Amino acid sequence: MTRFALVFCLVTVLQPVAGARPIQAGQSSDATALDLLLLLFEAIAERNPNYDDTLGAIATLDSQQQEERLAALAERNARDPRVAALVDSLLASSAYKMYFRQFSNVTPDVHRSVFSALPYRAIPSPADIGQVQLELFHHRDSLAALVKKISMVNIDQAVSIARRWAPSGNLLVPTTYYILDGNADAFAKDGTVCFDLYGVLLSKRPALNRYNNLADIPNAEIEAVLAHEFQHVFAQPHLYPPTRKFDNWRDLWEDVIIRRIVSEGVASQCNPPYGLKKAIYEDSVVIGFWLRELERVMGQIRRNETTEDSVRAWLERSYQESARQQLADYLKRTYPEADQQILLQEHIADRPRGIYSLGWWMVSHIAAAPGGHDSAVQLLDSPHEVIRLYNATVTDSLLKIAL
Ligand SMILES: [Zn+2]
């Protein structure tokens, strides 16, 4: 999982072991939600022929009339039996059932409003789902090539990368559910993986040619992200054993932060950052910022100088605003002013989120030391060793963690 990381649930839905019998490519992949979405777009396009002309006519109305007309068109979509049945099927698919268990910021009703409003407007919605679905609708003819890629992904390859970073044992291959949504990225939950092709792949391509040559996206790029998520599934029983219990919120949150760092740090060995993201994730100012933040907040927790709400808010910001600020500051230090704004937009997904930056930095250092690969994997069973092991790899006092 790459967002809202904690998973306490036990592994429930699993498929046969890779070693027990050969895994066929795509055997554990479920693209039902992608197929349903494309059928839904087709049904919406048929229900709204000449929608460009309709939009042109709407633009000549006053704002109240526009609102009424758009609401009537959305109502007509919602009542269309084929559109309604496809929306129902999509939102009841295994992929979206998993998705709604993971995210509290959206409900099926949000998606219903978003789809009904197509192809005329984007409903304001969490994570801009409305805008994403409108964009996807307009590029629906290009999406078939992306859906086809799923069947060409080499699951064996992803499994073997993930296994290298997982404790040995009975590692079952998780089923992967694919969606095109914009809210999710990729995440593991209950022993399965949900993979948002928009969040993982499309959103990271420049907006202007986002839908060009989708067939050329390297399979390895998808396999590396899958490997990251598979590793989370393999690591989950080790990193989050049912015996994990706490007497107070301070011990709980100290543990949450450490386990998240280890979780993402080891998983990201499966899909190491590259290009600009790597430069940001290994920038000494960015890393220095997050090392000092970790010391500050952990120190406050240990000395009982903060509240649970403050820690939770800090952690939320570390994924969002604080990470965005670090990205903006990095770009200011590194690029001419004229380029900074566009780079910020195009690389927002590469913002150095605290948990990920610290995880990548610390676990990579541990893994690079002699015998380090095994030490990194053993962290999944003893995550609190991460500070000591990391400190042993660095000589620069500024890079050490004073905890
Ligand atoms: Zn992850």
Bound molecules: zinc ion
Query: What is the domain tally?
Result: 2
Structural class estimated from helices and strands: mainly alpha
N-end to C-end Cα span: 27 Å
Task: Throw out a few tags for this protein.
globular; 5% strand; disordered N terminus; 2 domains; binds zinc ion; two-stranded antiparallel sheet; 60% helix; 403 residues; 4-stranded mixed β-sheet
How would you characterize the overall build of this protein?
With 403 residues, the protein is mainly α. It folds into two domains: 244 residues, no CATH class; 145 residues, no CATH class. The protein has a four-stranded mixed sheet, with helices on both faces. Strand 5 and strand 6 form a beta hairpin. It starts with 14 loop residues before the first strand and ends in a 10-residue tail after the last helix. The relative contact order is 0.11. Zinc ion binds next to helix 11 and helix 12. Zinc ion (ZN) binds next to helix 11 and helix 12.
